[in-house]
Design goal:
23% helix, globular
């Protein structure tokens, strides 16, 4: 899953038919864990709540931005099955940890 952030929120871009969207619609509490590619014993964990869901042109432009960041090109239009949505997550708790 591709993750982004602004000054206040963690941003996750998904589609409205996916289970993660259905889950946060039922319960906005989430945990996002990011593992260090270079050191699998180091990770960051963010717990918070989805405080806003953004659809429309902003969500569509955001998935292209993420795709360019992670894959070097715009997102494949044919891969979109429903509507894109940005989940804005307000962090409540953050952990940066090395285990082992």
């Amino acid at each position: 899953m591709w993750v982004d952030a602004d000054d206040e929120h963690i941003l996750v871009n998904t589609e409205i038919h996916r289970q993660k969207f259905k889950n946060v619609t039922a319960d906005p509490r989430v945990t996002v864990v990011v593992w260090d590619y270079e050191n699998p014993y180091r990770f960051a964990e963010i717990r918070g709540k989805v405080v806003k869901k953004v659809t429309g042109p902003e969500a569509r432009a955001h998935i292209d931005k993420l795709s360019r960041k992670y894959g070097g090109r715009d997102y494949n239009e044919d891969a979109i099955q429903t509507e894109r949505v940005i989940l804005r997550i307000a962090p409540d708790r953050q952990i940066d940890k090395k285990v082992g």
